[in-house]
Amino acid sequence: MVDLKISKEESDTRGRYITVVDGLEAELTFSKMGDTGVIADHTGVPEALEGRGVGKALVEALIADARDNNFKIMPLSPFVRGQYTRHPEWEDVMM
User: Fold this and answer.
1) Distance CA 44, CA 46 (A)
2) Pairing with 34, which of 9, 13, 15, 45 sits 20 to 30 Å away (CA)?
3) What tens digit of pLDDT does each residue of 12-35 get?
4) H and E: helices and strands count for the chain
């Protein structure tokens, strides 16, 4: 997988990490729980991009952001939860 440009958009209560690959947008959305946590609630990767590591890259951006900004993640999204089971080293930022 080529390095992706991932950006973050957020409001007072929600946000998302997004990337565009081959003209297709993929996202990981979250809901804020105050200043101390987020609920990773949806990961959407177009079928044409599946298997290319795009979803994992979005989760890794969330993990890095949580570590840099000292917040915890509740992995409600089945994809995020599945990635967490494969990466126990993320335990420091998971609820």
Assistant:
1) 7
2) 45
3) 999 999 999 999 999 999 999 988
4) 2, 5
| 2 confidence band (pLDDT: 50, 70, 90) | low
Residue ranges of domains in the chain: 7-90
Angle at 13 between CA 77 and CA 78, to 5 degrees: 0
Burial of 53 (C-beta count, 10 Å sphere; 0-12/13-18/19+): middle
Start-to-end CA distance of the chain, whole Å, equals: 29
pLDDT for residue 48 is more than 90: yes
The pLDDT of 75-80, averaged and rounded, is 97
